[in-house]
Amino acid sequence: MSPFSRYLVDLRRRLGVRQGELAEILHFDQSYLSALETGQKGPPTPEFVERLAKALELPEEEQRVLFAAAEASGVKQRIEVLVN
What we know:
Blueprint: H1 3-15, H2 19-26, H3 30-38, H4 46-55, H5 60-73
Helix pairs in contact: 1-5, 2-3, 4-5
């Protein structure tokens, strides 16, 4: 699971929001949220993260953590290959 996936699951559970309810609020398919939570999709777009933060009425600090988790999930490692 990505940092965003873990955070989204934790956040949703702490707030007592079911996945289907959140999907309806955000106007996204529940299957998309499920894929985000299991790490099959991601990272989400900044627009999605912003919409999520607004829909859940997250305080500023929680929003920073949410955006940081999304950003951390988008980090890809680059491996350089040396050819002789």
